[in-house]
Structure formats: structure tokens, C-alpha cells
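Field reference: sequence -> structure
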Amino acid sequence: MTGTLYLIPNTLGKRDAFDPLAAVIPLPVQQLAAGLDYFVAENAKTARAYLKKLGENAPLARPIQQIEIRELNINTRKEELAALLDPLLAGRDAGLLSEAGVPAVADPGADLVRLAHARGVRVRPLVGPSSILLAVMGSGLNGQSFAFHGYLPVDAAERTRRLREAEQYSRRHRQTQVWIETPYRNEALLAAIKASCAGDTLLSIAVDLTLPEEAIVTQTVAAWQPGRLALHKRPAIFSLLAG
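Structure field:
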């Protein structure tokens, strides 16, 4: 009998001592994760830091140094995925851990989940914060129909083309368009949206979701002014809905 691949949610940022983990990660999820001794994670060092935090609320299955953590990130080759599943095929449970939020959504863990299904391994997603869903929820834009596009191109001309295509699609289908961006390029993306999109198109930006500094602002593209929301080096979700 194979083990179960648990999709373990992570926080969306560093939490201070007065901001309990249970605010975003339910205690039963913490307890289940703490009971595992094999993890696949984007970064072993940050995974151990997260497990240490979990250990404050639930006893770990083993000392952190004895918990096996194998990395899966953008540098992992497709042919290396099968070996990550070998312990599960031998009957051992495992946790898939993202750097932030839920695994396998805008995350390389999706490839491992797909392979797990193909190999007959049970996959069990656990409850935790998704920055994408939280941003859509808090935007006031169309949550009935939305599309997440990941990152826009860095090239300015290609980025402009993609923004205009997305805005046109949004206008025709009343569909919210959602992107993430590398935090140090947030201001550049906002400037590109202001230069490319119609003034009456709605733009919502959510930053530092679930953290004490959280802010969500929705207004027309024309109304967005420099400094309206501090964006530099803050994790952000951009959502757009054309009228």
C-alpha cells in the first residue's frame, strides 16, 4: 500500500511572536504536518525553519535534524521527480511544502502531484492560505470567473501586449485577470498597467496578505497615483477587471 502525499500549506510571510501560526494554519493541519518525517520542499533551510515553528504547537515526529527533506524547485529535472515518490511507493507518508501559501499552485510541486496521481499515490490537500484566492476575495472584482496568469513578461513590449490582450478578454467575458510579480518589480508593473489599460478598468492590488501590514486597494486605473500604496519589495497580487 502506498503512502499519502499531503499538500502542506505554509504562511505567506514571516510572522512575529504576537501573530500566532494558528491564524492561518489550522491546528489539525499543524499536528498532521508535525507527524511526518519526510518532506519535499522548495528550500530545505526554510522548510526546517517552518517545521521548527510547527514544533512549538505540536510535537515533531523526529528531531528536525533527522527529518528527511528533499528539494523540488525550478532547478529540478523532470527525470528526478520519480525518485521523490519512491518513499511513498514504499508506504511512507510525505508532505509537499511550498515556500509560501499552498503547494502546487504557482508552484513547481504541481509536477510531483501529477506524477503521484499517475503512480496511484493518494494526494490529500490541506487547508491553508492561498494569496490568489484571498486577493480575489478582497478585491470586489468578479469572483465567479477569474484567470490566474502567473508572471507577465519582463520585456516591456511583450508585457504591454499581454496586458492589452487580457484587458480585452476581461471586457468581453467579464472575467477578472490575476497576476503576481517579483516584489522589486511591482512599481514597474503598476506603471505598465497605467500606460496600457483604459482609465475606467478596475485594478485591485493586495499586498502582505494575512500579515499585520496587509493592504488591499481597488480603484480605477485612472485613479491609481504614485504612492497610493507602498509596493516596493512587498509580496503583491494584481487583479484587473475591464468594464
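Note: Strands lie at 4-8, 38-41, 68-71, 94-97, 122-125, 146-148, 176-180, 202-207, 215-220, 236-241.
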